[in-house]
Design brief:
Blueprint lengths: L2 H30 L6 H28 L2 E2 L3 E2 L4 H4 L6 H21 L6 H24 L3 H5 L7 H19 L21 H20 L5 H30 L4 H16 L7 H26 L7 H19 L19 H30 L7 H6 L1 H6 L60 E8 L3 H10 L6 E7 L9 E2 L2 E2 L5 E10 L4 H12 L8 E6 L12 H4 L5
Antiparallel strand pairs: 1-2, 3-7, 3-8, 4-7, 5-6
């Protein structure tokens, strides 16, 4: 074996590892673009997607994909990985396994937040064992499409279109999430994901993994470099085009849509990455950037299919586009390319072959996955109950209070049962504190009691304001003698329902904006002075400056000393 073969053999396995790492990217995108109450369920699905896929690929999937060809339709079933391990093609197994897992995980995003975990495990297993291996055999295993000359270098059709079609059919049969569409008007309601940062991290992980996804099968340095170029240009152009388009259409560049556009460009270039040049990659990416926006709009406003992460727009539509675009932009100027597309003087031959591949694989996928989903729905059930969906799948499906410790209910779970109050430090032991006596008004007692009408009035002032104004307000209140503050980060809006905005093209009816709530109880400092100080600091003249609420306070008790009323609000000398 020459050095070149050794180098590319190692790179082949490194590429497989990069594709495996894309599972982390898919998990982060799906978790970030959905709600926190389902994050644990989504992580579990993406973990089991690969693990169940491995089991099924060992049992049957690998042999159906790369076994001895039978009339161009299917590979001969076998257990060579067990019976002939010494002579087994280990590299090919690992490489095709990680690709197989990618197909199944695409479906997860479109059906997120309302699918039974058991049902997910079943259809993921069927995709890995049968649906994907059969059509992939047609394309990569010596089947009839490869014999005709159909070209899909890394899987726009075999992986992304198949996963996207499965996602569309599954989401349609499953139905939308509760509250996604108005029962009265049918208008889609935006349900933003809980962590855009995690979603963005997932996109960057996927982009990195895509260099292995597209480039692992390269056979020369020139071809590998050219694949890297096209795999970089297409998503970059797609993202820029999407940013400009959403900026014009919605008034602001849509962050989540641009993240999806990056993935759309990667999906679209996957089939022709080895046979296109820079210009072809540019056009493919530009169309992908527009197509992903159209896809989300189509599902939300026309098909009424709820796809939380945009899997159908990214994978199905751009999988189809990338496969079709191969027949348009293939060029023999690309290293190792032997075909020319329509726009490079090749006529309609390759374009026709691409269309045949798209239609045949789409038909196979649609029929088989529909049967799978309907059987699951009729037996174990496909969707969780309304109660489970509202509570979140983390709780009901996995017994997990939350994937985030900060969101878990406070209580004994955070402290051992033996924790003693004596372990808490203080100047005054609790048993030495002055007894607290509740002061009552005459109306609350049988016998009239004397009430000190000259006692200083106690007032509570609650201020809701922008986070950016907190420091200025804190210093201003301190200047007038108000030093005791209780501060809480809150979400809210006034009667104007927050600013008008859109999320992935759907309008947010009520935007809960991040605010700061400051609470103070005053006696020595006149309440009017507190109000005027806050108004002066917070005023900008724009909607969202905040509000000030004033309440009468009946009494105050200082726990440590037992002091009440005015005295309880004074600091220690």
């Amino acid at each position: 074996m020459d050095a070149n073969s050794v180098i590319f053999g190692v790179w082949f396995l490194i590429g497989a590892a990069l594709v495996f790492w894309m599972q982390a990217g898919f998990a982060m995108v799906e978790a970030g673009f959905t709600r926190a109450k389902n994050a644990g369920n989504i992580i579990m699905k993406n973990l089991m997607d690969f693990c169940i896929g491995t089991v099924m690929f060992i049992l049957i999937g690998f042999s159906l994909l790369l076994g001895e060809d039978f009339v161009g339709l299917i590979g001969k079933p076998g257990f060579d990985i067990i019976t002939s391990y010494k002579d087994f093609d280990w590299s090919s197994f690992v490489f095709n396994l990680v690709f197989c897992a990618t197909t199944a995980t695409i479906v997860s995003g479109a059906m997120a937040e309302r699918t039974k975990f058991l049902s997910y495990c079943i259809y993921s297993a069927v995709i890995s064992a049968f649906i994907y291996p059969v059509e992939a055999h047609w394309i990569w295993g010596g089947g009839w499409l490869s014999q005709l000359g159909f070209h899909d270098f890394a899987g726009s059709c075999a992986i992304h279109m198949v996963g996207g079609i499965s996602a569309l059919i599954g989401a349609a049969i499953l139905g939308p999430r509760i509250g996604k569409f108005s029962k009265r008007t049918g208008k889609p309601h935006a349900i933003p994901g809980h962590n855009l940062t995690i979603g963005a991290l997932g996109v960057f992980i996927l982009w990195l993994g895509w260099y292995g996804f597209n480039g692992a099968a390269a056979t020369s340095v020139d071809q590998l470099a050219s694949i890297f170029v096209t795999t970089t240009i297409a998503p970059a152009i797609a993202t820029v085009v999407c940013m400009i388009f959403t900026w014009i259409k919605y008034g602001k560049p849509d962050v989540s849509m641009c993240l999806n556009a990056s993935l759309a460009g990667l999906v679209a270039i996957t089939a022709p990455c080895d046979v296109t040049d820079a210009m072809g990659a540019t056009v493919i990416g530009a169309v992908a950037g527009l197509l992903v926006v159209f896809g989300v709009w189509l599902l939300d406003y026309k098909l009424k299919v709820d796809d939380p992460v945009g899997a159908v727009a990214v994978h199905m539509m751009n999988g189809i586009w990338g496969t079709f675009a191969t027949g348009l932009f293939a060029t023999k100027t690309a290293p190792g390319s032997e075909i020319n597309g329509l726009f490079y003087g090749g006529g309609f031959k390759q374009l026709g072959l691409q269309c045949v591949g798209i239609l045949s694989v789409a038909a196979w996928t649609a029929v088989t996955i529909t049967i799978v989903f309907l059987v699951i729905k009729a037996t174990v059930g496909l969707r969780v109950s309304e109660e489970e969906e509202l509570m979140g799948l983390d709780v009901k499906e996995h017994g997990l209070s939350s994937a985030y410790a900060d969101f878990m209910p406070a209580g004994n779970m955070f402290y051992s049962a033996g924790t003693s109050i004596e372990t808490l430090l203080g100047d005054v032991p609790v048993d030495k504190a002055i007894e607290v006596v509740k002061r009552t008004t005459p109306a609350a007692t049988k016998k009239p009691v004397e009430v000190d009408t000259n006692a200083p009035k106690l007032s509570k002032v609650t201020i809701i304001c922008k986070q950016s104004k907190f420091d200025d307000l804190k210093y201003a209140l301190n200047e007038i003698g108000v030093s005791g503050l209780t501060v809480t980060q809150v979400l809210g809006c006034g009667t104007q329902k927050g600013m008008t905005t859109k999320y992935r093209g759907a309008e947010l009816d009520v935007v809960l904006l991040p605010k700061i709530k400051i609470e103070v109880v005053v006696s020595a400092v006149p309440v009017d002075e507190v109000i005027e100080t806050a108004k002066k600091v917070l005023y900008t003249g724009n909607i969202g400056d905040g509000k000030i609420f004033v309440f009468d306070v009946e009494d105050v008790v200082k726990v440590r000393t037992g002091e009440v009323g005015f005295d309880a609000l004074q600091g220690d000398d």
